[in-house]
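Quick note —
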Amino acid sequence: MGASNKGKSGSAILSIFTKIKVFLKAYIAANLPKGSKFTFKNRRIMQTYLKSKPAGIQLFLFIGLAFGIFSIFGYAGAKLLPLITGIDFNTFQDVNKWSPNDPRIMLYIRGMLLLQFLGLFLIPVLLFGYFSDPKPTQYLGLRPPHHFVYFIAGTAALLVAIPLVEYVGMLNKKMVTGSDATQWMKTLEENASKQIQFMLGKKSLSEYLLNLFFIAVFAAVGEELFFRGVLQKLFIKLTRNPWTGIIITAILFSGFHLQFYGFLPRLLLGIVLGVLYWYSGSLWTAIVAHFFYDAFLITLIYANPHLIQDQDSTLIAPAQITLMAFISLALTLLLVYFMVKKSKTNYSSEYRNDDPPDALSF
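Predicted structure written out below.
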């Protein structure tokens, strides 16, 4: 009996809405100028996605989401990794106590990298994409580029920039050396350098392949999703200027690594990656380029261990570095110019679907 009444009630409500629709169509048709046409589109009442909110609110929510999830993963790691490896957290924090003959240290490091990848990069980004758009992968830029050539041009731009990156790194190091206020920067840099030496210093094929996965793959996928896929998208929307958003994101990208001797080189690479993503229309191009850049350096160190054993060693002879840097700069700018000129991306097309849909459309 109750079910029957509910069915009749639902039919009555539907009938009322149908009559209202017919009335509106008749009213509009009677008042339109002669020769004018209109369409009355039915649309479902849709979920309000985050992309329809102001960019500042989206940014605040994303940072909060990432911080919250990473805090949970960090706490879990601090509890689980000592149980798995037998090394307490305080001992692990002191890089001077790391023994290259203790496989548990490497297991702990890779466990931390995995937790960072999942808890800071992958899960928060995917959740934010899910709540932002009915097509999360499209929203995050995981779509085909305007042209396949962007994969080649973007990867080439990063690789030919290596001499320039090394030269800028030398200048960057001179800028922060010798100041008492930067002693803590030096400490952070030394600890990061020791961790890199520890991870890349083992010359075996299995370790090489594991480093490609835990360093190159995790950094390429995770960092590009986080910085370019979400932050750059939001900063461009916030500033309404692609280059401003790209540069702000590159600054945050470089600062995130807490390696101040390499701040300017990584800033440069962040700008190239941001340009590649924006003008190609696809995050895949930035992911691929980032992977090949890191993989190239890992392979180079695997073949030449002295590059990390001696902190003063360089890829290019000091006598040639200035000339090579200028050539590198010219080639990088040429490839960036090519990517910009070939692009079909513009602000209007990228953000045209960010406004919430109207319930009725005439």
